[in-house]
Amino acid sequence: MAISGSLERLREQNRRAITAALAAGGPMSRADLARRTGLSRTTVSTLVSDLVASGAVVATTDRGRPHKGGSGRPPLLVALATPSGVVAGVDVGHHHVHVVVADGSGATLGEVREPVDVDQHGPQTLDRAATMVRTTLRAAGIARDQLRAVGMCVPAPVDRRSARIRTGILSGWRGLSPGAELERRLGVPAVADNDANLGALGELSRGAAVGLSDVVFVKIASGVGAGIVLGGRLHRGATGAAGELGHVQIDEGGHVCRCGNRGCLETLVATPRLLALLQPAYDDVLTLERVLALEAAGDAGVRRILSDAGRVVGRALADLGNSLNPEAVVLGGPLGASPALAEGVRTSLDRFSQPDTAAAVRVLAGSLGESAEVVGAVALALARHGAEAHG
């Protein structure tokens, strides 16, 4: 009896892995699901057949591409059955809250973004986010009882063991469990993760990393963070702190970082630092939008600073790449579309990575821009809703 129960728990765990992969990555072939989940093709085929029979998964009329560009017959794809109701994605940045309400396929039904002073005001920000979700539902003509799940990103690591924020980066949030707090306010399941992880999930599900399995997403903003995707799944680490690239020490005698250490990567390349380096050379007050416009116009000073920043980021990524061997580095955040930044990252990867590792990795600009995190939050909500509906 105990063995039978253990086998059933394993099957249930494997079914959830398949539905989570489909929720995050959209329609896939059985071979893609095997690669994404690490399960054998036989196991995937059996479980997909069970899920199709139960109505949780449907066979589509679409066909994918043969693996690695092969010339065989394109495989048939399977997808999650579209669950009823809607979900919400909530992107909490340092200075804004961005809410998207989406249907079961992830299509946007309503959206709002507001400036909010976030860092010192955790409970008040969560109150505001809950109000924005309700307002967006109402504006889209959707009854509140149609909301099934909410995904939320915050600009700090979320402890996997307690689901709480323990870091001092968001001083007004220390000890809060943001998912549980939002769930209490809205009365539906809510789950939270950090912004770099959900930026990675957004680009994986609907952006530059669609179809890839091993990716490092790097967000360069007021801080620096990375979302790591291994085998098609987010890698969060033992406590949820995986990907804290911004706190890799670059200069042990450098400036004190907000984390309390000295010489961290983000003290050199975070956007406030880059703006401060550039400002003395310009009469008008520089913004990130202005910096990107100057780069597009060929400004040599801007290109130099951004390229230098890319080299510093790329040096840290080279060490990470030697360990993880990713297919791509996806650059996100306000400067993710900068060609000079990407050029600098590429230069350091080529110089400091192992030759085979450097040859395998592409450097890509994120295609979702500043919407990557909220798209990832929607994908997280869909995965939670899918697990509830099909579990």
UniProtKB/TrEMBL annotation:
Ranges of residues in domain HTH marR-type: 21-63
Which Pfam families does this entry report, sorted A to Z? MarR_2, ROK
Q: Where is the signal peptide?
A: none
Family under the similarity heading: Belongs to the ROK (NagC/XylR) family.
**Can you name this protein?**
ROK family protein
Organism of this sequence:
Nocardioides taihuensis
